[in-house]
Amino acid sequence: MTYDLVIGDRAYSSWSLRGWLLFDAFNIPVKLHTARLYTDELANTLKAFHPARTAPTMRTPDGVVVPETIAIAEELASRHPDAGLWPTAPKARAIARVLAAEMHAGFVALRSHCPMNLRVSYTDCSPPTEVRADLARLETIWAWAQEETGSDTWLCGAYSAADAFFAPVAARVASYNLPMSPRAMAYVRAHLAHPSFRRWRAMGMIDGADQEFYRRGYPRRPWPGPVPLASRPVEGSMAENSACPYSGKPVTHVLEIAGRRIGFCNAFCRDKTVADPEAWPRFMAIYQA
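RESULT FIELD:
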């Protein structure tokens, strides 16, 4: 048996991003159930996860339904004490829990003015005073956590659940070019380069059509995270490998990269790799061989 996790659109569902990171970033296997936002899919999917109302929702291997990311984090940490979801040092662990709790409940102005959209980056979104106040608060608590724990990259030492909770904030800063100090921007850039974040965004880039609710008319700029290796989908099934690097199934879809043809078992496997080849270790093992 394994965990089940209900998620919404990867490009837009910031809460789903948090929930998924609590598994992927800490190497906990999970079976995903995806549902399109603003349709009946999510409500219909959640009928099997009573009493949950929204994504993400987890079901444990013994059948307990756990909505809400903060509850998911605590339950996973209890069941997987060696996974590293929370820092082992008591002081750092306490600070990490403080940060996660504040993120879970706060920053309403930032959430409202800058809904997560991983598919675009804007030059400016004219953040109002309330959003700038949220950004100032983020600067305060991030600096406090790093100073108290002596951390340079993440908030409380090694990457923890607290950092997973702030990943959607990093996405918002990247998407809306929000003004932050160099120290805070270094923390944001660490998120954008994190392997799990890159995998989620790569899938989000090709995971369904754009959602009109998230469209904004601001001028655009390139995504400020790591630049993906150039690749493209191509027709046919001829490839240098016979089995998909992810599933092991026969190749049916192919991408081209640096003049080479590498194959996959379906369009999703291929296209998520085209979106960011370096995000996928199994693909890179073939590419670098």
